[in-house]
Description:
The protein is an alpha/beta fold.
Amino acid sequence: MSADPGIVIIGASLAGATAAQALRLDHGYDRPITLVGDEPHLPYQRPALSKGYLLGTSGPGALDVLKPRFYADQDVTLALGAPATALDLDARRVRLADGTEFPFTRVLIATGARPRRLQVPGADLDGVRYLRNRDDAEHLAAALRAAGEVVVIGAGWLGSELAAASRAFGNHTTVIDPLPAPLYYVLGDQLGGLVARRHRDQGVNLLLGDGVEAILGTRSVEAVQTITGRTIPADLVIVCVGATPNTELARAAGLHVDGGILTDAHLRTSHPAAVAAGDVARHQHPRYLNPVRIEHWDNAVIHGTAAAATLLGKPPTIDHVPYFFSTQYGSTLEYLGLPTIWDRIVIRGEHATPGFTAFWLDHGIPVAALTIDHQGAADHLRTLIAAARPAAPRQLADPGTPLPDLLPDAPSRTSRDLRAGA
Ligand SMILES: Cc1cc2nc3c(=O)[nH]c(=O)nc-3n(C[C@H](O)[C@H](O)[C@H](O)COP(=O)(O)OP(=O)(O)OC[C@H]3O[C@@H](n4cnc5c(N)ncnc54)[C@H](O)[C@@H]3O)c2cc1C
């Protein structure tokens, strides 16, 4: 074995595999790389788990993060099927549940997140399901095929996609959310209302401003009882109430953790041997006042790539405009920015017509945007938001002004600058 034990990556998924690829292919790193994953599968992508893979329109091959032969070709050791259970950062060793130990010079922690559990009576009945991994998706697809009455709890991105999937399987579908609109924290009333209309147009029974009191049944689910006293029949309940970062290993290793593993703008943690990336990392983003933890595919790829450079002592600053995509009822929604503070929404075009875009402004500066079925728009919107300059609402609203022409000539001020009174 080489004198330098190399890099261990904990979490064999999107951020972890992307980092392994960047280490070998972008940086020509030639020391050992070990990719540790608790799942038995090669690193795979999760977005299709609530879309094509769930619906049966795409197969497992389409999920691969990297070509299966990459790992052997690039001499990346895979240690799959057992979680890392102990991380000693000073001794620079990680131990897995099966007793295997790996030494390292540096470690990347990319352990992702897991579904937040519903805490109500009946939540452990058969027929209550969550979706995070490939095995969950396979079981959920079988359950959706067999179900008739489906209740989705939570109308965020995942809940909205799963309501659409449930309708595609032909199920009676109810969505319950305590907030006044789907995706309320991201989109607010007006645009969330638009998502609500799409659900209702597709036959979803959307119960807003209501919560779950209990799940009823003897052995398996029979109904959901809501806080306002409704009883909704159900033979399948899908819980989509957010995710919790997998920080236990990092916390036990002594790293600073607060709603995610805290990192600086280069993904460095509170220990010099450890870097964190992807859904588990809460990074100090130069655009925002507080550290952000972002559960987006795009963020995991950007983090994975950047983490490779940081692990090698060439830390880039990560200041990308966050980007999320979602497919619901055959439409693609793309959202850029973060739902931080805004004081005005400007709408371009009519809903359900090509080019429809919503802009969220803070002091006249576009800080977020949503576009629906508008191929190619995301890059222009990213540039506009990244510029952090005031834009004329009349031009933003005018579909006749091409998106590339919207970039104003004014000094840039990020949300962080505005809050700091700059
Ligand atoms: C169903 C679903 C649909 C999604 N759809 C979209 C979408 O449409 N658009 C979008 O932008 N984003 C989407 N996302 C989010 C996106 O997939 C995530 O942001 C991305 O997967 C994060 O990658 P990651 O590598 O940081 O974490 P993860 O993908 O969560 O991977 C972390 C890995 O680490 C493993 N692990 C955890 N603890 C340990 C341990 N102690 N030892 C070893 N391994 C460990 C986990 O089991 C997992 O395999 C979706 C996510 C889900 C679950």
